[in-house]
TrEMBL record:
Residues 380-526 form the Thiamine pyrophosphate enzyme TPP-binding domain. Keywords: Oxidoreductase, Pyruvate, Thiamine pyrophosphate. InterPro entries: DHS-like_NAD/FAD-binding_dom (IPR029035), POXB-like (IPR047211), THDP-binding (IPR029061), Thiamin_PyroP_enz_cen_dom (IPR012000), Thiamin_PyroP_enz_TPP-bd_dom (IPR012001), TPP-bd_CS (IPR000399), TPP_enzyme_TPP-bd (IPR011766), TPP_POXB-like (IPR047212). Belongs to the TPP enzyme family. Its EC number is 1.2.3.3. Residues 5-118 form the Thiamine pyrophosphate enzyme N-terminal TPP-binding domain. Residues 192-319 form the Thiamine pyrophosphate enzyme central domain. This is Pyruvate oxidase. It comes from the Bacteria. One of its GO terms (molecular function) is pyruvate oxidase activity.
Length: 574
């Protein structure tokens, strides 16, 4: 029996469990859109207003669910717009499929309107990158693309000339869903026992864990409690162990805590689980290390390790917990608990200081305190990330998504859209700066259109605030960082949602109570004061940079620059 190639391609998608595609229609994907029209009961086509949002939403779907995210666009300009979100998926190692249109096959290589060599365009971002030239091969290659994206946790791109899906083909292809299985690595108990012996014989072991423990939250909690281990979580893994767990030292690095930095330096054994942490200057490379990861290419990649275990974190930690003898006490842990307790008191001082307008640190603390236990957080890049890391107390019962490795501004709104579509019964809170919001604000209308009642909070200070402090720490004068004054509350209302302008802490507290469970998309345009997102530990080169900035500011402008409270600076530096 003959079937249309487009219908068979869509059939492959449904067999793999795809039930939503983010994208924009257009001339070079019209045939594919027509096929989606015929399966509206199986696959939702979420029509966003910018292709970047489509790709970022697909990436967020993959991060939140662990399943394949799918986006679609025309060739040429639409394909180019996809790149940012696809790189986000690539760098955060999540599976995304991009279906990209192209001019009709007979027009290829004629320099036709909107003809772009997408195969070259996507060469770096994709683990699988094909252009379809034979209609009969379309379902097979679609199946192969999906398998590759899932197995390699990366981006697959199919470029499809618009005439190809319109052909009639033989109905003789069966997707490889039932016989597809991710490789399970056998755990070697001898390795586990050697690692346990190292943990017993070292007095100062510390855990550095990443998103690889996403499915091993309870096992990790049991592991650190049984062996009395302080833990540091990478930024994308925030909340996988409760932020307020007494053993949790927060994050490491510029967005981290001082106790995490100090206890890493005092460690004599580093246990890395499910992480490819890139900031090697913050790692203690002088001591022994154990690493657990399913990916062999990550073992020993960032530093030398004594024991490398290629296995699933959940299964490995289960064996650790079954085979080892509990540690009764560990002075190193006691010191870590004391230091993080002191740090939390310092952070209370920060968000309790006198101020005008809305203080970002207090804002994050208040919304964290009032958020439901099953909240999904979608946090943008910049000061949102910094204050989220420091003042938002995430729980293991919640979810937390960011653009971790690419660090692309504008990720919070697409992340919130994906989160609410994937988990419609859970509260979704997105937080972004005014710079990030300005990049994607048109798609607040998408949240309204599809009745996705998210709470979207904008830190509005008419400034690229994170860049402000980056420039200062580098010893440079602030330049090119001001933003236009935009009333985002009115933008939200114009899109059909609810918008409120917030100018005081009390107004913010009232608003987050009022919209704890909103019935339609809500945007709070918060007039925040400019508060410095200081590093947890100010390094010497940063101290020199701040000093140079201050001295040059006096010479250039004849006045002292505005500085954070000296108490906060000294706590981070000394």
């Amino acid at each position: 029996m003959a079937v249309r190639a487009s219908d068979e391609m869509i059939n492959v998608l449904t067999k793999w469990g795809v039930d939503n595609i983010y994208g924009l229609p257009g001339d070079s994907v019209d045939t594919t859109i027509d096929a989606l029209y015929r399966v509206q009961d199986k696959i939702t086509f979420t029509h966003v207003l910018h292709e970047e949002v489509a790709a970022l939403s697909a990436a967020a779907h993959a991060k939140l669910t662990g399943k394949l995210g799918v986006c679609l666009s025309i060739g040429g300009p639409g394909a180019i717009h996809l790149l940012n979100g696809l790189y986000d998926a690539k760098m955060d190692h999540v599976p995304v499929l991009a279906i990209v249109g192209q001019v009709q096959s007979k027009l290829l290589n004629t320099d036709f309107f909107q003809e772009v060599d997408t195969h070259v365009l996507f060469d770096d971002v994709a683990v699988y990158n094909k252009i379809i030239m034979d209609p009969q091969s379309l379902p097979r290659i679609m199946d192969e693309a999906i398998r590759t994206a899932i197995s390699k946790k990366g981006v697959a791109v199919l470029t499809i000339p618009d005439d190809i899906p319109d052909h009639m083909i033989k109905d003789n292809f069966t997707p490889n869903v039932d016989n597809f299985e991710m490789k399970n690595y056998k755990i070697d108990d001898n390795q586990i026992k050697k690692a346990l012996e190292m943990i017993q014989n070292h007095s100062n072991p510390i855990v550095l864990a990443g998103v690889g423990i996403k499915d091993a939250k309870s096992e990790m909690k049991a592991f650190i409690e049984k062996y009395k281990l302080p833990i540091i979580l990478t930024m994308p893994a925030k909340g996988l162990v409760d932020d307020d767990h007494p053993y949790n030292l927060g994050q490491l690095g510029k967005l981290g805590t001082k106790p995490a930095f100090e206890m890493m330096q005092k460690a004599d054994l580093v246990i890395m689980v499910g992480t490819d942490y890139p900031y090697t200057t913050y790692l203690n490379k002088k001591v022994d290390a154990i690493q657990i990861d399913v990916n062999a290419d990550r073992l020993g990649k960032r530093r030398h390790v004594n024991i490398a275990i290629q296995a699933d974190a959940k299964e490995t930690l289960t064996r650790f917990n079954e085979l080892g003898v509990a540690v009764e006490s560990r002075p190193y842990l006691d010191e870590a608990v004391k230091r993080i307790g002191q740090w939390r008191m310092w952070m209370k001082d920060v968000y309790s200081k006198k101020h005008q307008g809305v203080l970002p640190s207090l804002m994050f603390h208040n919304i964290s305190k009032s958020a439901p236990s099953d909240t999904i957080w979608s946090i943008d890049v910049g000061t949102s990330t910094a204050f989220g890391a420091r003042f938002l107390t995430a729980k293991s019962s919640q979810m937390y998504t960011i653009s971790a490795w690419l660090g692309t501004m504008g990720c919070a709104l697409p992340g919130a859209i994906a989160a609410k579509k994937d988990f419609p019964d859970r509260p979704v809170y997105a937080i972004a700066g005014d710079g990030a919001t300005a990049m994607v604000m048109q798609d607040f209308a998408t949240a309204v259109r599809y009745n996705l009642p998210i709470l979207y909070i904008v830190l509005n200070n008419k400034l690229l605030a994170f860049i402000e402090y980056e420039q200062q720490s580098a010893g440079q004068q602030n330049y090119g960082i001001s933003l236009p004054e935009i009333d985002f509350a009115k933008v939200a209302e114009a899109c059909g949602g609810i918008g409120e302008r917030i100018t005081t802490d009390q107004e913010f507290s009232d608003a987050i109570k009022k919209y704890r469970h909103p019935e339609k998309p809500v945007l709070l345009d918060v007039a925040v004061t400019d508060e410095a997102p200081l590093p947890g530990k100010i390094m010497m080169d940063e101290a020199h940079g701040y000093a140079k900035f201050g001295f040059d500011h006096i010479l250039d402008k004849g006045t002292m620059p505005k500085l954070p409270p000296m108490k906060e600076i000294l706590r981070s530096f000394l």
